[in-house]
Amino acid sequence: MILWLAHRLMRAASALMPAHRREWSNAMRVEACVMDDPREALDFALGCLLAAAQERITPMKSPVFIGRLGVGAVTAAFAAFHLQCLANLVAIAMGGPDPYTDMLIRHHHLEAAAAQQAALPYLMLYLLAMGVGKLAAAIFLISRRARPFIWACVSVGLADGGIIAYLLLTRANVGGPLSWVLQFLPLSLLAAAGWVLWRFTPRSVQSLSVPAQA
Fold first, then answer.
1. pLDDT tens-place string over residues 177-196
2. Cβ–Cβ contacts within 10 Å for residue 144, how many?
């Protein structure tokens, strides 16, 4: 019974151990299998489980992880803002109140009000792409998945470029080149922060092997 429990604890330790420590984990399991004393095996398994837990939480203590978490949290907050704006536009499209358009009509800006209504589907698509793209970028940044993070940033950049192209094609007031630069500024900061954080992330520590006892 004690040996059975020790083997189950070793399985849990192996599952908990980070990937770059997999060789060390395998060596631990081999060493545990050759132990004949049940209590010794149980003590060893408990120690391995504690070591695996410590290895798992070690990256979370690093300043780089804190930086990724901070940038990811800010990015997720921007994503939540875009998705909230999308929810507001969906409510307007379904017949809800539209204070901005009502204000334009009250001040006799009928052409601007009509343009606002015409742009509603494109604004909804833009906000959806921005919200989902930034939320995905935040998740991939925190979890250190470089390639999906890059694709998420690309999707956000395409959304930014798409809304600028729409405003230019419809001859809307886009504020000139400076506003185009400002439109891409949050994305540029996100990409730069991601690059810096990955640049200073320590390389995977070489796996340590524990020689099995004869």
1. 656 666 677 778 788 877 77
2. 15
Both structure tokens of 208: 């340590």
Contact 207, 23 (CB under 8 A): yes
CB 39 within 8 A of CB 2: yes
Q: Which helix (H) or strand (E) holds 90?
A: helix 63-93
38 by Cβ neighbours in 10 Å (0-12 / 13-18 / 19+) ranks as: middle
153/150 Cα distance (integer angstroms): 5
| Per-residue pLDDT tens digits for 77-124 | 999 999 998 998 888 888 888 787 778 777 777 777 777 777 788 888
* Spans of all domains in the chain: 2-57, 61-199
Please identify which residue in the block is written with the tokens 């379904």: 94
Six token digits for residue 161: 């470029």
160/162 Cα distance (integer angstroms): 5
Q: Which two tokens stand for residue 76?
A: 């997720």
pTM: 0.59
Contact 21, 209 (CB under 8 A): no
CB atoms within 10 A of CB 138: 25
**DSSP code of residue 19:** G
